[in-house]
Fold this protein.
Amino acid sequence: MKKILAILMAGVLTATAFAGCGGGGESSNTNSGSSSNSGSNATGVNASTVDYAYFGDEDNIKLKVWAPDAAVNLVKQQIEDFKKAYSEKKFDITVVAQGESDAATQMLNDASAAADVFSFPSDQLNKLVDAGVIAPVAKGFTDFVTTSNSEDTVKAGTISDTLYAYPETNDNGYYMVYDNTVVTEEDAKTLEGTLAACKKAGKKFIFDAGDGFYACTFAFTAGAKIDGLEEDGITQKFVEYDEDAAVKTLQAFAKLIKEYKGTFTSLNVKNVASGFKNGTCGAGVDGSWDTKVNQDSLGEKFGAAKLPTINVDGEDKQLVSMFGYKYIGVNGSSKFPNSAQILALYLSGEECQKQRTEELGWGPSNKNVQQDKLVTESAVLNAIKDQSQNSCTQVNIASTFWTPMGNLGNKLVAEEWNPDDADATRKLLQDTITNIRDEG
């Protein structure tokens, strides 16, 4: 791997090696590293370490890293390994817990006070790029990053032929998790079977119908799928769909929810794991980020599957979900732009991705790790992979998408909602689409 990077270095070790990186502070002129460090290869076990010359004249390096709660401790360990890999440099690196879903908002609030290196989901890339707060991947690293990661994650991280972020995961989606002493593998294939099994055992089925990230499953399954943005780059684009068929599907959801009142429960996904732990939950819809806590709660009773089907007029329709990717980005205002790029490369590298798969159950974007039995034999990652074939990609999402979708979900599960009212259901669907598009 070092030979590969050495060849890569030969063509890019110039004053413009980091051309396109934003930020002020120390110079990024890598020619200043042509003294004793220029011929010194960094040491370390990862496949993402580079020549010291990439640091340029940056030293006494101070960086802030944002990581989601579940990953903070692991990221801290990985950063200690990073420091050892570059032992000739002095670092002061702090890791702060920051939810990925709010990363872009925090960056846009004040990029100068935000993290130098941060994690975020794929749908936030456009706003980060439009606001000019994210630095493109360093030109010297793009070929390596592109060839190391799956094509779909690289594509989703690219805008106008520029790669703006380091792929971190290929699993940002949700699946069905269940107590296998309550719900059988056969039950889990259908929503009807899952709900019946939970009701029989006196357990809840938890689905966060008020959160647009999950509630969009109702509309997507009905056929109202998204397809990026319109030519204006603002308005959400929907594929054409049969409105009559869509209304029947939404009615089927509402009827099933009402039939299993007391079993179907709309709660935040955090209640899935806690419900398993206290014995009140039989199954639920949750994401890859909660894999470990759900496994810890269920132990040998842990079960995982793609989302089930729902029967609509005698036909079993597969539930369609949202699916995306997660990235590591570099703040365009970083005072240590070269070092931030090097750290982002390291944290997104093969070894760090493998560690996250081992300890957190996250699905890797790195091609080599994807072939590891940790991935190929994982019930969760296989469930997410299967579900990803029945999903809309979480890129180019209008900011107005989430609230109307959550409202649709809340209406369908409301006790006063009449599942037999086709006209009201049609209006709800039409209003949802209109509110998303017109406010975009």
The CA atoms of residues 71 and 360 lie 8 Å apart. Confidence is low (pLDDT under 50) at residues 1-46. The two ends are 46 Å apart (CA to CA).
